[in-house]
Amino acid sequence: MITVMKFGGTSVGSVEALNRVAKIIANEKGKRVVVVSAMSGITNFLVSAVEDVKMDLNDVIKTFREKHLNVAKELFSGELYDEFMVEFEKRFSEFQKVILDKEMRKDPYYADNVSSQGERFSSLLLAFVLKSMGLKSVALTSEMAGVYAVGKPLSGSCDLKKTEGGLNVNVRLLLDDDIIPVITGFYGVNEDGKPLTFGRGGSDYAASAIGNAINADNIQIWTDVNGFMSADPRLVKNAVTLTEMNFSEAAELAHFGAKVLHSRTIEPARLKHIPLWVKNSYNPENYGTLIHHIRGQRKEPLRSVAMKLDLSIITITVGEISYKPAFLAKILEKLSEAEIIIYGISTSLSNIALLVHNLDVKKSLALLHMLDSIDIERINVRSNMTLICAVGDGLLNRTGFCGDVFGAVKAVGASVEMISEGASDVALNFVVSTDYATEVVKTIHEKFVNGVE
Ligand code: ADP
Ligand code: ASP
Ligand code: MG
User: Fold this and answer.
1) What is the distance in A from the centroid of ligand 2 to the CA of 81?
2) CB within 8 A of 329, min separation 6: which ones?
3) What are the tens digits of pLDDT across the range 21-38?
4) Could you report the per-residue pLDDT of 376-412, keeping only the tens digit for each?
5) Residue closest by Cα to atom 6 of ligand 2
6) Which residue is closest in CA terms to ligand 1's atom 21?
7) Contacts of 22 (CB under 8 A, 6+ apart)
8) What is the DSSP letter of 229?
9) Sign of the C-alpha dihedral, residues 105, 108, 112, 117?
């Protein structure tokens, strides 16, 4: 029995937190593979060091060192501390080299390299806490474990097949010897041997990919709330924890904004039907949420609602585009050149509306302008848009449910700017102006989650 246990930034963010999760790991039966995020605040700090040219890099190095060493000094002493320091200095000199090397700054994967450094130190700390408890443990970077990634800078995907090979060579033998590997989350190694991150929050996805590649029996995502909830608890005060969800429900919500899981966490687990748990490292006794392939019977029309901010609708007008399927294909092909993610599509006789991230609008327009301008009559952009993703079972079969939801949206004073219903049988997605988004989420939650007896 193999369990992959992933701990997020707050779960490894302090001496107390590290001690707490070490106990959780010690209490878990069977073979364990641990995956960690950087200590909370560290990745943001490293990202600002990359982006803010005014930051003094020597200060960055000093702060980074102190933050980790202060924790180590509280946790370890004697021989264990000395042993820790040997490993620490090895990683630290590499960190310094990466940050200070002017040549590396020109590398397209420089930001990936710097921002993924935090995981190398949190994994080391946790492995040594486990050792201090008498457990056998070793800290592995993604390079050492054999976690492989493909894709563009800051948006890698895990190469599951290659990672399976990597873990079989580098991790499986450790498990056979009852050694607990503590692996860096957030990134894999690309074909040039460079760190490539999976996007912010990517350690959840890394854990799921590692679970897939090692053929785990369970994947546990340990965080700071009791499980996957009916809405973001910071937004909706009376959000409730769901005890169980199916892969489709969780995947739609994670993709469309539920921050508790990285947007791509579900797929690697789903591919091998590995149950994925979301649990609270501050409250380990709590059951948490089980996400699996079984589709249970539901009473309530809506299970959970999420929102994805910072989107824009690009509407392209081409006379009778419906009769020009080749041109429609060309539009999508063009956008795919820059790997632009389309969060929604809606068509009419002469228009196609595409929902993309604000940051992709400029790039999309430049690509669209490369198409034959005679065909395109007009391109219009509406920014400040938010997608609301409402997930429930059999939404399509509930007569009048859409009407009820849109009635609630109207009551808030918002108008529905775009709709996607029917593509997924568990999700109803629609777009509203960001000005109304929070109110819409609260109202829908109140009416269709809390309001149901
Ligand atoms: P970690 O550092 O463990 O990866 P994150 O901060 O990335 O933790 O994710 C956990 C947070 O996600 C919670 O504290 C909560 O505020 C937020 N969140 C947003 N949507 C949901 C949801 N539907 N269910 C639970 N938590 C959610
Ligand atoms: N440390 C990374 C981040 O903050 C990855 C993660 O926490 O999942 O984005
Ligand atoms: Mg997270």
Assistant:
1) 27
2) none
3) 999 999 999 999 999 999
4) 999 999 999 999 999 987 776 777 888 889 999 999 9
5) 201
6) 232
7) 126, 129, 130, 133
8) B
9) negative
Mean pLDDT value of segment 57-73: 97
| Short-list 415, 449, 419, 406, CA closest to 435 | 415
Which mutation among 37, 223, 242, 264 tests ligand 1's pocket best, with the greatest number of atoms within 8 A of CB?
223
Tens digit of each residue's pLDDT (9 = 90 or more) over 275-302: 999 999 999 999 999 999 998 777 778 9
Q: What is the largest CA-CA distance in the chain?
A: 77
**Which atom number of ligand 2 is nearest to the Cα of residue 201?**
8
CA–centroid distance, 37 to ligand 3, in Å, is 8
3-state SS assignment for residue 288? coil
Residues near ligand 3 ion, CB 5 Å cutoff: 8, 201
- High-pLDDT (> 90) share of the chain, %: 84
CA-based nearest residue to 336, from 380, 377, 367:
367
Q: pLDDT averaged over the chain?
A: 94
Q: Is the CB of 9 under 6 A from ligand 2?
A: yes
Are the C-beta atoms of 394 and 425 separated by less than 8 Å? yes
d(C-alpha 306, C-alpha 254), whole Å: 8
Tell me how far the alpha carbon of residue 427 lies from the centroid of ligand 2, in angstroms.
27
Residue carrying structure tokens 């947007």: 263
What backbone phi and psi angles, to 5 degrees, belong to 179? -95, 135
Q: Is 13 near ligand 2, meaning CB less than 6 Å away?
A: no
Distance between Cα 105 and ligand 3 center (Å): 27
Ligand number nearest to the C-alpha of 12: 1
Euclidean distance between CA atoms 68 and 88, whole angstroms: 9
Q: Tokens standing for 331?
A: 């539009």
Identify the CA nearest to 124 among candidates 34, 219, 248. 34
215-250 pLDDT, tens digit each: 999 999 999 999 999 999 999 999 999 999 999 999
Asked whether 140 and 181 are in contact (CB, 8 A), the reply is yes
Residue 163 main-chain phi, psi, to 5 deg: -65, -35
| 82 burial type by CB count under 10 A (0-12 exposed, 13-18 middle, 19+ buried) | exposed
**Ligand 3 center–CA 259 separation, angstroms:** 7
